[in-house]
């Protein structure tokens, strides 16, 4: 069921896009798209160089918008393509979600409703409990908690989950960001820039679902210590990102009440 949403009371209904970065998700992409169609009028799939038949499945899916990366460029690069598409096509709001079955499309309306008065609404798998919650892999939960604590202490947020990819963005605020990190650390660059820009953020609870808790990041990031060091390096570098009109290494953002 599709709904009308408004960024401000009395304003015209907003135009929103749901974007799904996809890399080798042949097992999930059809089912995810079927579920998202019930909640989003416009759907963009960013196929990040899949080699497992995902592209052929997408060829059979009617009515979707699509960006194809010839080779795998990374999660952050796929989200950047979604950002660029939403800005270029003048959407009011962009929703991003994963294609591995973790994110429940019926939560899209919850994110959209929470966006009124905010710039970024981020799903949190740790804000509240849900009936369908599953345990997070131990190393991921530990690293998420450590990085979330560091982001909060350094940039004035009160977040509970800095890595959830299920988000809603006001596109006019999105256009202020300068996201360049192509890998899994991209959400951390986003939080640092959001703090420096003074963007208003809010979290909403989403179920914590791990269909495959053994799924790996790939390469050196499979090692938790290496992954943690990489994330901290992304944060450090993001403090010096060139943001027009914003001095480097300043903080912090005011979270929504």
Number of domains: 1
CATH class: Alpha Beta
**Cross-sheet strand order for the largest sheet:** 3-2-1-4-6-5-7
Average per-residue pLDDT, rounded, comes to: 88
Tally of helical segments = 8
Main sheet summary: 7 strands, mixed
- Helix content estimate: 25-40%
- The CATH topology turns out to be Spore Coat Polysaccharide Biosynthesis Protein SpsA, Chain A
User: What does the radius of gyration come to?
Assistant: 17 Å
Global structural class: alpha/beta
CATH architecture: Alpha-Beta Complex
CATH H-level superfamily title: Spore Coat Polysaccharide Biosynthesis Protein SpsA, Chain A
The first-to-last residue Cα distance is 29 Å
How would you explain this protein's 3D organization?
The chain has 8 helices and 7 strands, in the order βαβαβαβαβαβααβα. The protein has 257 residues and is an alpha/beta fold. A 7-stranded mixed sheet has the order 3-2-1-4-6-5-7, sandwiched between helices. It has helices at residues 29-37, 54-59, 75-88, 108-114, 138-155, 171-174, 186-197, 224-238, and strands at 16-22, 42-48, 65-69, 93-96, 120-124, 167-170, 201-205. The chain has a single domain (16-238), classed as Alpha-Beta Complex (Spore Coat Polysaccharide Biosynthesis Protein SpsA, Chain A). The model is unreliable at 250-257 (pLDDT under 50). Strand 1, helix 1 and strand 2 (42-48) form a beta-alpha-beta unit.
